[in-house]
């Protein structure tokens, strides 16, 4: 069992999907969870209530990570909640945009990089003073960073950047015992991958995978919880594929 008793965790984009499942998994393992959301206030408050009702500890905090100072404001708010110690950072928040090369706009491209790359970069930077020695950072990569999957070139580029940041962060923070890894899901049954809920989307998804079912958020959350725990104490600078054997 993953034991995170006495730990405090921040999960960005935690009001739904993989973020929500991750927050629940960390809370079940004993961590106090800070639930970040951008617009889903009702979903975030419901998640906090669910964690508390199960005997856990949780708080919700809002921040727009697409804004230039979004990560800075979130870090400030988190410090106000947790004080001078944070043990786990899961930078899960992200946006996707399906568009051909010809149809990708500058606005969409910039928004992808703002939320998916700039925000986690500066969130790590701003939280460094309170990240405890021996803490764990988990970033969000994707199958799209390692294989061509549909019309996701700009999105895939953001996830390729995350894979690069993982290595640089891990090298820079290793002296403090701070581990930095990423998870790279394939297609997951979430609002972001709504096409997988259609018959055609499900068939396409299964055609990519060795395991013939559509992934659920909990499938990814369990791996995040593992990486956050002492059981993964010798895993560092890695991007773990959690994709059911996709594109083998």
Query: What is the annotated CATH architecture?
Result: 3-Layer(aba) Sandwich
Total beta-strand segments = 7
Secondary structure category? alpha/beta
Number of H/I helices = 7
Share of residues in helices: 40-55%
Q: Please, could you describe this protein's structure?
A:
- Helix 3 packs parallel to helix 4.
- A seven-stranded parallel β-sheet has the order 3-2-1-4-5-6-7, with helices on both faces.
- Strand 1, helix 1 and strand 2 form a beta-alpha-beta unit.
- It is of the alpha/beta class.
- It is globular.
- The chain has a single domain, classed as 3-Layer(aba) Sandwich (Rossmann fold), CATH 3.40.50.720.
- The chain is built from seven helices and seven strands.
Index terms:
seven-stranded parallel sheet, 7 helices, Rossmann fold, alpha/beta, 248 residues, 42% helix, 17% strand
